[in-house]
Amino acid sequence: MNKRLIVPLCVFVLAAGSAMLAQSNSFVLERVLVRVNGEILTQTQLTQMQIDACRDKAQSDDKAQGCSTTNDTELKKVIAELTPDILVYAVDELLLVQRARELGVKFSDELFKQGLDNIKKTNNLDDEGLKKAMEQAGLSLDILRSRFEKSYLRDQVQREEIGRRMQLTEEEMRQYYSAHKDQFMTDETVTIRELFMSVPTTRGANGQDSFSQADDAAVKAKMEAARDRAAKGEDFVALVTQLSEAGSKANGGLMGTFKVMELNPLLKDLLDKLKPGEVTIPVRAPRGYQIFKLDARAVPELQPFDKVKVNIQQRIYEDRLEGETQKLLTRLRGQALIEWKDDTYKQMYEKKIAETKDK
User: Fold this and answer.
1) Exposure of 170 by Cβ count < 10 A (0-12 exposed, 13-18 middle, 19+ buried)?
2) For position 29, what pLDDT does the model report?
């Protein structure tokens, strides 16, 4: 199933947004491609979805030219590859939204406001920044609300029709826990202290800072001496208090506790060689030299089942969601009146549905 069906509400619009097609001032009778229980998909809507899909493809694949290509043949090829999936997505969207309305699901003004607030928070935008972003994407508040609403209604149908019926036994959860222990390990962390000494610099006429090789060598020698003192057992915090020029000096050089996987690769390599209590060799920093003390290391441990039980439920739900959603859509398609007005698109749609069933 197309993963856009479960895209988080706050991300959905900015990822898919694009300029709406220009329309003539004269009256144009819209071309209807398909009716789904009386609701229509038009050529204009399909064209816009093709533009969005091309742009998404280009953004997700550096090698994909997508709609940015100036080669007409290449553009038609890309569109032809994307259109069957788009048609299935468009019809499925109509079916899920219709089912949501049958269930009495409604999208309120408050939910719309929450969606806007989430976009602003996620993208660090104020009201004016959001307005400019919408203008650049060719989006109005009405279009934005419509997209939010469809996304919300689809999510709620999945919750109502799938989530509430997906009953998990204790034994199923424990089996998943045993088979996926790597997913429930704690992070490996390290607690680090630092000692920093700066190398004197002078500002040149060109505005660039420079330092002398003699000063650099002298500071490096001081740092190596401090490292030797620490290696021989001298208290590292006392050395920091006496010698360090870093802001962390006030906390005894304490930098904090960090996840190993998120460390700078150079620092990680240095710390991997140490046992708690040991100190690294001097490292050249942009403004001077540093040494680091490994205060503590926490190795990964398997979290207790009861602590991650909710997490297990969510993971099983996500693993089963696509298959269960396909079952739901198969049922909705079977109950729906789908009237195609274009045989070419009908053939594309039916071929894609058949391929999905064969998987």
Assistant:
1) exposed
2) 67
